[in-house]
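Page 47, continued from p. 46.
Same chain as before, 421 aa.
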Amino acid sequence: MSTPTHTNPTQKTPVVSFVGATGPALRTGDAAFDAQIERSLTAAMRGSADLGEVAATVARITPGDLGSWRAEWCATADQVRGEGDASLAAGHRVSARRCFLRAAEYFRQAFFFNRTDIARQDLQDDYAAHVSAFRAAVPLLGHPVETMEIEQDGVVATGYLLRPDGEDTPRPTVIVPAGYDSTAEAGYLDNAVGALEYGMNCLLVEGPGQGGVLYVRGLPLRPDYETVLRPVVDWLVERPGIDPTSLVLFGRSFAGYLAPRGATAEPRIAAVVCDPGQYDFGAAIRARLGDAAWARLQDHDPALEADLAGLMADPQRANDFRCRLATHGVTTLTDYFRSLATFSLDGLADRITCPLLATDPEGDFASLGQIDPLVAAVRGPVTRRRFTAAEGAAGHCEGLGQFRLERVAYDWITDTLGRAS
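Result:
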């Protein structure tokens, strides 16, 4: 999500193994697969997954078999999408909405490990099915939803603006950039449901390297998120029901970098949440590779690629890297590391003068070595919150502790905006 690979085999977080008296466990024993299954467990909290369907799907998956992963999630997604269509045709809107949201989550799972080549047809098919299922649910959500499509000054951004109701009374708006491997559609269950429950608007945003801007338009990730954010805010403040003085950037996973980067040059942002806080990927890469390899990387040593081949020895890890390469629009590890190293707030973070909340979940690989320099560099007031395994909120982006995160984040947002007004 926020580092060269999305898993960390040394991460010490609680093992989740829900086993029913007559049902299968909600895990495969494959660390990478189980990390993603956990995302569907949190989706179930939002009505976007069914624990029984997830367990039945997991039971059919062969651990470590990427083809099995895709095939079984597609099978479940196709079945649930068909049931949603049947319910809608019969006038059963609640059942249809539930089915469509679950199908969207299952299709997202289907292509998660299948993003090594954005042109491959199965990725394109599964991504299109993911979007189609979510958009089938949109008229049934009970909230106003407006699609955003921007192409301005070389910037392409898409997404959805959701509001709690149709009233035009100005409200605070949470702007949520997608993460490294996320989509705006997946942002509904990850972020929008919570914002709407707290009475706020939510704008889910995909920029270069994310969702359809990557898979359909082919535009890779870029470090200067302030350039992406500017036309997005221009578009947003023209919508009804938006309080232009109460715009909050809420960046999760890789967007824990994108959000503060956007705030460095966007004075209309009133507050920023980084979950987790991130600062300089170049420093993270240097710490991982060592000074000697880092110097060779900067010198474009042609022999370094072969010397890094060991990083691709494990098939799952190699797949993770290839997904990242595709996101950055490069074909080699060395080009990937050089690209990722340009994603930095070093020398820029002192331009952030609005209040900032930086989370630091225990065991989250994305925040290792990143929190301290971030909070030290920002000039605005900073709140730092450590989440722990003891409170059930360890791991990447608090793992299964999503309500604990939201209590902290949205209470902080409400109090911060209240003080500002």
